[in-house]
Amino acid sequence: MSNKPIEERREKALAFLTAHPTLNPNEEWVFTYNNHHKLLLVIAIREYMLDVAEKLIDMGADVNKKDSELKKTVLMNSIGGSYTYTKMPDGADEDGVKLLLAHGADPNITDKYGDTMLRKLTAGHYKNIRVIEALIASGADINIKNLMGFAPIHDATAEVTKLLIAKGADVNTKSNDGRTPIHWACSNTNINLATVLLENGANIEAPFRGTTPLLMALDRYGGGYTVNIKFVRLLLKYGANINAKDSRGRGVDYYINLIERGGVPENYNGDYEINPNRKAFADQLRSLIKSAKQYPEKLGSIYAQHAFNEATNKTYGAPFGTYSIPIKNKIENYLGHNKREMPSWVPYT
């Protein structure tokens, strides 16, 4: 089914280009809808006028040209929907990106912040997996970092994270300030993302700004996100240290008490009322932590055995020293804080 607004603009654009064969296709124009300076090639892609884009490229449009403001390439500017708020057909993003890649667009060029196209998409939690796949197939570097040290996997969606890991992304890569992907998952209490990361060897004890993933997750309660029992249980399953303290000496008990009081600090002297629902939730957390404290050796043995069973299945009984890094990390996570309870445990070498 044709899209009349797109067709009308497409015909006018083609007629204009035909009438002006000496036009400079690499010059920025003021786009009347928002008064921003835009390259004609970007406008053609965003308005889904792909034949117009082809003609501009034939006229010499540079598919790798950067804009003057943010130093973003045509590829980076090609996604985001119509400038004119016209409804685009399904797959418009994918079609535009593939056209540019087919004409030599480089997915590894960076903008003024050091972001590549792939990093910009994952940072925006972009969900179209086919576009991500097209970029990777065209040579996008999945581990390249921006000026702050963030890689594409740092805050990708769960589905995109699976793809990046399958292509070799480092699940424990650190930003300049020490943040790893599991910190993002825990600060947002994203259980699907955390599961993907932990299943693939994310370090459950990775330090960041004086805290741990478990304490970070508990600290998010009331901060715009809501931690839940399933999320905490997931972290404990993978060996989160229930005895860990943050840089101010605060542990799980402190944060659970804070949850119960609705964020009111312990040293607050005024009156406040404890919400029954918050208290019930805090008691659930206390019960969960108590169980983990009561049976550390048993849990450690179960998780270690599970990890080795999985590792053996994947490595056909190979010695521990030959295991891949993700599998080694997974074994470490399964043991978690229980390693201190099991000094006699030694991996087969």
From TrEMBL:
GO terms for molecular function: transcription cis-regulatory region binding. InterPro entries: Ankyrin-SOCS_Box (IPR050663), Ankyrin_rpt (IPR002110), Ankyrin_rpt-contain_sf (IPR036770). Transmembrane segments: none annotated. The keyword Lyase does not apply. GO terms for cellular component: nucleus. It holds the Pfam family Ank_2. The keyword Repeat applies. This is Uncharacterized protein. It comes from viral metagenome.
